[in-house]
Design goal:
This is Iron ABC transporter permease. With about 325 residues, the chain is an all-alpha fold. It has a single domain, classed as ABC transporter involved in vitamin B12 uptake, BtuC (Orthogonal Bundle), CATH 1.10.3470. It is built from 14 helices and no strands. The protein has helices at about 5-25, 30-45, 50-85, 95-110, 115-140, 145-170, 175-185, 190-210, 215-220, 225-230, 235-255, 260-275, 275-300, 310-330. The two termini are about 20 Å apart.
């Protein structure tokens, strides 16, 4: 099957999954009701009944969030794997998720509003990556990529300790449940205003990754080979790190920590279109959106209560990743 056919089928699958996601839930919709809702919105004939409210204020922003966050985490994961030349790397390799977790937990611990918690999470993610990059530059190791990874692991461990400490000190009745739920990830609290606030930031991260994706092929070579081909390795790597980190921090700030997407989706994209990042990054974006749409739809439909996304992504992602490893070994 040619790549163009595979990509066409992916777009078709995306459309089907998005339609199922937007019509499924506690208040299910038929396609005719969906068409009526959209027509009323376009013509300004909004009735403000329960169906309109549920769809436009809850369901529609949630589906958009799943597309944006799923695609964002996936393309960030693909970028990190290319930069660090390691297929086992995920978006939290430099501590962005751990740092965002510290910021969010601190915001909850101090009793701030949801908006403040999101700002704390966003700032924590960016600050952690900046700290990792600064310490790695001070180390001046022969292999700068290895330095970044090792410092990222160490700082992530420190962030994990800080989160554990605040969980112990938190009020077990009012604060601890909120902390636990946030760390497990979910889209249930996302509103249209949240999307409006993070979408421009994520777009700023998307643009360099998409426009400069061909350079990722060169960056995935050794630094000496990349320099021989005329690439400014340090500047290019920094641009990609900043872009992927901005996307990840924005996503984590409103959705919590959603694991595995950034790790397994790039592998799926490579199976579909190969290792060329010119195709792999856009396909990762699309596959990530599809996977989070499916996972979020399951999270709010398979049980009487809504399941945290982190539980489902781990339950689906870990076996799938093992299957990929076994398939690669056989190949």
């Amino acid at each position: 099957m040619s790549q163009s056919v595979r990509i066409t089928l992916l777009f078709a699958l995306f459309s089907i999954v998005a339609l199922i996601a937007i019509t499924s839930g506690k208040y299910s919709l038929t396609t005719s009701e969906l068409w009526t809702l959209v027509s009323n919105k376009l013509t300004g004939n909004v009735e403000y009944n329960r169906t309109e409210t549920v769809f436009w204020q809850i369901r529609f922003p949630r589906v958009l969030a799943a597309i944006l966050i799923g695609g964002g985490l996936a393309i960030a994961g693909a970028a990190y794997q290319g930069m660090f030349r390691n297929p086992l790397v995920s978006p939290d390799i430099l501590g962005v998720s751990s740092g965002a977790g510290v910021g969010a937990v601190l915001g909850i611990f101090l009793g701030h509003s949801m908006l403040s918690i999101q700002l704390f999470a966003f700032a924590g993610g960016l600050a952690t990556v900046a700290l990792v990059y600064f310490i790695a530059r001070l180390a001046k190791q022969h292999d700068p990529v290895l330095s970044l990874v090792l410092v990222g692991i160490a700082i992530s461990a420190l962030c994990g300790s800080a989160i554990s400490l605040m969980k112990i000190l938190a009020d077990p009745y009012t604060q601890l449940p909120s902390i636990t739920f946030w760390l497990l990830g979910g889209l249930s609290t996302i509103t249209a205003s949240d999307l409006i606030s993070v979408a421009p930031l994520m777009l700023v991260g998307f643009i360099p990754l998409i426009l400069l994706r061909w350079r990722m092929n060169i960056l995935s070579l050794s630094d000496e080979e990349a320099r021989a081909l005329g690439l400014n390795v340090e500047v290019t790597r920094l641009v990609f790190i900043l872009s992927a980190t901005l996307i990840t921090a924005s996503a984590v700030s409103i959705a919590g920590i959603i694991g595995w997407l950034g790790l397994i989706v790039p592998h799926i994209a490579r199976l579909l279109v190969g290792a060329n990042f010119s195709q792999q990054l856009p396909v990762s974006l699309l596959v990530g959106a599809i996977m989070l749409l499916i996972t979020d739809t399951l999270a709010r439909t398979i049980a009487n209560i809504e399941l945290p996304l982190g539980i489902l992504t781990s339950a689906i992602g870990a076996p799938f990743f093992l299957m990929l490893l076994l398939r690669t070994r056989k190949g």
